[in-house]
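Example record used in the benchmark description.
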Amino acid sequence: MRSSSAAKPGRLVRRGCAEVRGEAACTGMDRAGDYAYKIVRARARGVGADEATMAQTRPLPYDTEAAAAHLRRSHKAMKKLIDRLGPITLRRDAGASPYGALARSIVFQQLAGAAASTIYGRACQLGEGGQFPEPAALLALPAERLRAAGLSAGKQAALKDLAQKTLDGVVPTLRALSRMDDATIVDRLTQVRGIGRWTVEMMLIFRLGRPDVWPVGDFAVRKGYAQTFGLAESPTQRELDGLGAPFSPYRSAAAWYFWRSLDTQT
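Model output (structure tokens):
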């Protein structure tokens, strides 16, 4: 019998991956987007799976020393983990607009790294100066040219929906996003076809540097939690949601430590 979700870390015994269909249910990825998962792990390590994308970074807008201290106090298992991994070295990405970041996420979904990079590069050649086409320009491109770049009909539809919603103001500017709370951003951006909660949460953590994002749909976070607290199986999304309470208001940092824990196993 499954234990009920609780706020105390490490109390769950029986675990299994939640049978939820969707973007990041049991995989922690955009459907079959294994490359997206690799990028997240690389970002957590502070190195680039895609060096061009992550060459420019900025410090996080919150006190990482205070975050680590809070997490150390939350549970002895977290103290042990942080003692092993050291201070938070995560930095947020700089450069891409919300439209550009989401467009790239759509292109990379369900593709291996090399293929995704090639298609994205071709798509960028359709824009001015070798940049991904701006919303109005993308909407004006005929399907034949997008298909020639390697974009499937589904991705074309998602990208054009993104472009139209950007022009309509549904997808805000970066400045506007900075004034919104996390829940509002998730609600706004998941209105775009092909963009789910996990993708937006990664933007909140790695682009906006929000301190209290808890990506319960991420497989690696759930696995890292289970290993840190000595659980036989990973918690489900619903269970992990409650278990993140002691880490607030620095759940993004907790997620970072759980990602890092999987890359530093000895």
